Amino acid sequence: MITRKSFLTACICLIVVLACDTPSNPEYGSGNPDPNPPKTGAALLNDVSPDSALPFETVVITGSGFATDPSANLVVFGKKVAEVIEASETELKVKVPPAGGWSEIKVAPNGFVNWSNTIPFKFISFFRDINANEVTTIDEEIVWPMGVAVDNDGNVYVGSADAEEIYKITPTGEKSVFASVPIVGAIHFGSDGYLYVCEMWEGKVVKISPDGSTVEDVAELDSPNDFDWDAAGNMYINSNEYGISKLTPGGELTEVAGDIGATKCVRVFGDYLYVSKIWDGVISRFDISGSGIGEEETYL
């Protein structure tokens, strides 16, 4: 007769036996091959082209011993891991990771126990180095500076949100009040020679004549803080947390991208509108090559 106690005892013994018979470190051999056997030697790197690039640009690494599966190649630039887009036994197409200065590239395909040889690479900085001896303070009295623009003659225009004025500073350092406007946001010169200004708290964008004598309303919308133009003369206006609107040369204002989060700056380059999303730490872009605006995509 099997009692409950004897049944439980038998189960415990069986578990102990099975646990003891199961190797914690299995031995691989003819009957139990290693699914990922280590390989002797290492991959060989011959070249990278180009040998300098901006972060997120694509470079091609040539050599031998690479895995044909892109995800099976570990590629590092210094200590930064790069994304492998395409792979063959002799070539890797790689997206440059974000970093700066000089670095060395090395590769370890899956299974190799050693790194490859290294080849040098230079990251091209998004920003040019500034010689500290060439930095000049042009004014120390502007309170709450807001927006900077430069005209074709080298005059610098700086807004003061505190004084509600835009100052003009000549190349020789002479400072004067260019116009009195409640500026909060960016300022940019348009192709017509007018200085366009965001009045975020007033809910509008205005333009100031080249001599500073007249101020005209351009567009009324919620919290505008930056803008830019495309090649066709359309103005794209960023409205802080209210999206982006498009103002045609004919004066038609329409929202083209709403509910995209808190945004700060907009710039048009080529066929794209780039937008900085300050709280997300993201640069987004929109294709503007068609009749409308494309879907938002993360650029950086």
Describe the protein in words.
By secondary structure, the protein is mainly beta. The protein is 6% helix and 41% strand. The strands form 6 sheets. Strands 2-9-8-4-5 form a 5-stranded mixed sheet, with no helix packed on it.
SSE topology sketch:
Layout: H1 4-21, E1 44-49, E2 52-53, E3 58-64, E4 73-77, E5 80-81, E6 83-87, E7 91-95, E8 101-109, E9 119-123, E10 145-150, E11 156-160, E12 165-169, E13 175-180, E14 187-189, E15 195-199, E16 204-208, E17 215-220, E18 226-229, E19 235-238, E20 244-247, E21 253-257, E22 266-269, E23 272-277, E24 282-287, E25 297-298
Parallel strand pairs: 2-9
Antiparallel strand pairs: 1-3, 3-7, 4-5, 4-8, 6-7, 8-9, 10-11, 11-12, 12-13, 14-15, 15-16, 16-17, 18-19, 19-20, 20-21, 22-23, 23-24, 24-25
